[in-house]
Write a structure and sequence with these properties.
transmembrane; mainly alpha; membrane; transmembrane helix; 3 helices
């Protein structure tokens, strides 16, 4: 049951992210990579828990996605309105 709520909240956050980027006129992929990486981390960990894949590979992929997401945060735009 908890997985259902996690998946629904993940879908809602994706829709809100896409709408917010369209509304702000942001089209660069580099500024979207942190959000994409963090969403992939959530999906990876949900799937890893669901199928009992909590091993070294899922942890390594999570750490790599965290590093990539943190690196591309420098391309995020700052809106001071």
């Amino acid at each position: 049951m908890i997985f259902f709520f996690l998946i629904i909240s993940l879908i809602i956050s994706n829709v809100l992210l896409i709408n917010k980027r369209k509304k702000g006129g942001i089209t660069l992929i580099k500024s979207a990579l942190p959000s994409i990486c963090f969403i992939l981390i959530a999906i990876l960990n949900i799937v890893a828990i669901w199928f009992d894949w909590l091993g070294l590979i899922s942890w390594m992929i999570t750490v790599i996605l965290l590093i990539v997401g943190a690196y591309f945060m420098k391309y995020l735009t700052i809106n001071l309105k």
